[in-house]
Each structure stands twice: as structure tokens, then as C-alpha cells.
Amino acid sequence: MKIGTPKEVMEGEARVAMTPDSAKMLQKLGYDCAIETGAGEKAGFPDAAYEEAGVEIIKTAAALWKEVDIIAKVQPPTDAEVKRLSEKKTLISFFWPGQNEDLMKAAAEKGASVVAMDMVPRISRAQKMDALSSMANIAGYRAVIEAGNNFGRFFTGQVTAAGKVPPAKVLVVGAGVAGLAAIGTSTSLGAITLAFDVRPEVAEQVESMGAEFVYLDFEEEVEDGSESGGYAKPSSPEFREAQLAKFRELAPEVDIVITTALIPNREAPELWTKDMVEAMKPGSVIVDLAAEKGGNCKLTQKDKKIVTDNDVTIIGYTDFPSRMAKQSSLLYSTNIRHLMTDLTPEKDGQVNHNMEDDVIRGATIAHEKEVTFPPPPPKTKAIAAQKPKPKEKELTAEEKQAKEAAAFKKQTQNQVALLGIGAVLILGVGLIAPASFMQHFIVFVLSVFVGFQVIWGVSHSLHTPLMAVTNAISSIIILGALMQIGSSSFLVILLAALSVFMAGINIFGGFMVTRRMLAMFQKS
């Protein structure tokens, strides 16, 4: 079968669904590859690069749609492109079936199989095909770059001979894929970064990236993100009011706001109101990544950059991934290549459209002249939210002191009891054992006791490196074993040989483990 990619017809779209590298991988699956002349030019992939990769160059879109069996593209097909579909053809692209029902029905009537990249289920196995996450990652990164381009100061703070420059303060609303990408970029540029999300389970991710999570003084039952494919759910009116109040408090302090909040198949929630924009400092910047769905900011205008009366710049571009066309094309074509790998289990260049497969079924919106959207819920859920741990009651100073005293008293009683039992046992052995034996036995017992007390007080996290060193050092017993090897008794020689063998394992093993532990803390 042949897979082909036409030139994108949507104005301003610079991405391409097939790159020379992805074409080579598709050829390994048994497919012939074709591309329309100039399809990759805007993304930095000339026709010559495709020819070197063994891709056939077809002059017109009409010829390509007619000749290939599988069409891979970025944007949803136009009405004219849907008319070019036929039975036994497969279309792979973004489709947004909830918004393009008539287009979806028309494609189904043609008998073609349509795989929507925006419908790939958010389960672990499908992450390599998740084109939405790939594009959101780029959008989050690019949003910070666009904000910096329109912001009149440094992101990082500086102290120079000319004076002190404070760091920029960035607020990221929504800690999904785009939000986390924006957080990572902002913190790496040196800005003080704050982040908010309605899902408290992402707080650890935010803080691990060097940002500060904005908590609300509001208790609401945590919704399991797995039930909505890992997306946030609509919040209650009370929660929304608490959220807006917090944003109003932060508005005068922040320099840059990046909003990423979207809920599937809904208009974007309004999170940054007109009065918040008016409260921001002159020169501040808002980048609204939800502009395509109406925007999280009240004043956002789709595909435009505006400046308000109080000198706040609001950016509502919807083509952030296309502004980084080469990187976007590399990631998107890799997503498609992974999808084709699942569609071609035998690697024989033939599509096996297995509707029993969670990923393929979830992404397929039309198959065998039937509309298959919406799909059934996947058998495997997205990563579930962690259940909040019950909060322990904080003790007063008197309660803490009483608790510590009780613990110390109990520990002392245990130690005294153990010492008493040990003393009785030693006396019992002394009644029947010779004096020469008791000398060595008492030293042995004291060594065990002291060693136990030393090791018991060490934190569990240090046990591995500690035991590695002590194993090596304690193998001094190898000297005693070597001295006994010359004994006239066969039994003594055998025991001495075994002692040398086991002590050798301790010595070499102990130092090898220690070396590996130290290597973990060294830069490669």
C-alpha cells in the first residue's frame, strides 16, 4: 500500500504530516511513500530531501489523492478533499469530529476509514501517538517565547553596575501538557513562576519543576481525572468564585499570564476577567492558549495581538505549533508513524484496522460506511488522581513533649529488659563453658550489641551505602582465616577456606556497591 501527504491548503499552516525521517520508518513497515511537490517547504523539508529518502514526488494534490491508499495530513479535510475519498482509502489527520459532524458523515458515506489524531485516547499505551500532547507541548514553550518577545524586561533577575533588575513574575493557569511546558520554559529563563490548576494532584509536578503551586483556601472533593481522559472537569460555582478571587489578588503582582485551560467539547472557561486585566501593571503580557475556543481572557481576540488602554498586551494566536513548523512536523510525523506501526502489526505494508484495539477504535470516527464517533470508553483508564491522604492532627507543644517522654520511657524499658535477659543467658553459659571460651564469647556478644546499636540508629535511606562499607571493613576476619589455613586439622582448614571465600565476597562486593553508590552522585 502507498501512504501520501498532500500540501496543507489552510492559510498559514506550515506543518507537514510526513518528514524524510518518518518516511524511512514507514518504508520499513512495508509502505511506499509519496508527497505532493512543495508540501514540506514551509517546514524546512525540500523535495530533494524527500527524494533522498526514497519518497515519490507527485506534482498535484488531485493526482496524489487518487494514487495513494492512505492520506496523512495535519488539518481537517476540506469539502473538496472529502469528495476525493473513496472506499478502501484511509485518512489520518486532526478532524475535531464534535465540531465537524457534516464533514464526518460525508467521509463515512464515501466508505473511507477516518482516523482522527485528536481522538487518540489518553492512556499509557497511546502516549507515543498522542498528537494533541505533542502540539500542546510546543504551544506551551512557544507561548513563553512570544510573551518574552512582547515583554519589555528580562525574565531573570540581575544585579549590575547600572542597577538591580527584578525577575519577571509569571503565572501559568492550567498545568496540563501546555502548562507544564510553559512552566519549564519560564523557570529555565529565570522567572519567578506561579502555577494554578483545579486538579491538586499536579501540585507535585509543578513544584518539582521549580515553580510555586497556587493553592486555594477552599475544600472541594477531588475528581478523578481518569474519568475524563486526564482532563480537568468543570468546577462548582463556589470553587469558581474562590478561584477568581485568588486571580484578582495575583493580578497586580504578575507580569506575564499564560492561560491554557480547556475542557473537551466546551467553550473555554473565562478565568481572566476585564477587571483583572485593568489591575495589571503597564507592560504586562497575557498569552491565551485557549483563544481558539473563545479564550480564557475576556478581552482575547482570536488570531490577533491587541494592546489595552492600560498598556497590557493580549496575544490570542492559535497557530503556535505552526510557528515552529519544523519541530511540530517532526513530532507529528512521529505520532503518525507510531499509529501506522499499530495499524500494521505484520509490517507487511497492509493496514489491519482492528476495531477491538482500544487505541485504534478510540481514534477511528468513520469505518465501513458507518460513523463510529463517539467511541466507547477505553478499557484502560487514564492515570487516576491520587486520593488525598488524611491530614494528621497537629499536636500541641505539651502533647509532643508527653509523646516523646512516653516513647523514651518505652525504649528504655525495652533496653533494660534485653540487657537483663542477655546477662542471664551469659551467666548460664558461663556455668558450663570453660574460661577460655567465655573470654572470646563475651567479646563476641559485646561486638554484636555495639554493632546493633550503631546500625539501628541509621536512617533506612543510608543502609545500602553504610552496609557496603561495613561489609568491606568487617572482612578483616580474612586475616584470622588465613592464619588458620596452616592448621593440622582438616576441619579447621575447611572452615578457614570457607571464611576466606566469604570474606573475599564481602570485601570486593562491599567496595563495588560503594563505588556504584558514589557514581550515582557524579555527573556523567
From TrEMBL:
Domain Alanine dehydrogenase/pyridine nucleotide transhydrogenase N-terminal: 4-139
EC number: 7.1.1.1
Domain Alanine dehydrogenase/pyridine nucleotide transhydrogenase NAD(H)-binding: residue ranges: 148-316
Single GO biological process annotation from the record: NADPH regeneration
Pfam families found in the cross-reference section: AlaDh_PNT_C (PF01262), AlaDh_PNT_N (PF05222), PNTB_4TM (PF12769)
Spans annotated as Disordered: 372-391
InterPro entries: AlaDH/PNT_N, AlaDH/PNT_NAD(H)-bd, NAD(P)-bd_dom_sf, NADP_transhyd_a, NADP_transhyd_a_C
Subcellular locations according to the entry: Cell inner membrane
Known catalytic reactions: NAD(+) + NADPH + H(+)(in) = NADH + NADP(+) + H(+)(out)
Membrane topology, record value: Multi-pass membrane protein
GO CC annotations, alphabetized: plasma membrane
Nucleotide-binding recorded as keyword: yes
Residue intervals passing through the bilayer: 416-435, 441-459, 466-485, 491-513
GO MF, one example: proton-translocating NAD(P)+ transhydrogenase activity
Keywords linked to the UniProt accession: Cell inner membrane, Cell membrane, Membrane, NAD, NADP, Nucleotide-binding, Translocase, Transmembrane, Transmembrane helix
Its job: The transhydrogenation between NADH and NADP is coupled to respiration and ATP hydrolysis and functions as a proton pump across the membrane.
NCBIfam families: pntA, PRK09424.1
Family affiliation: Belongs to the AlaDH/PNT family.
Protein known as: NAD(P) transhydrogenase subunit alpha
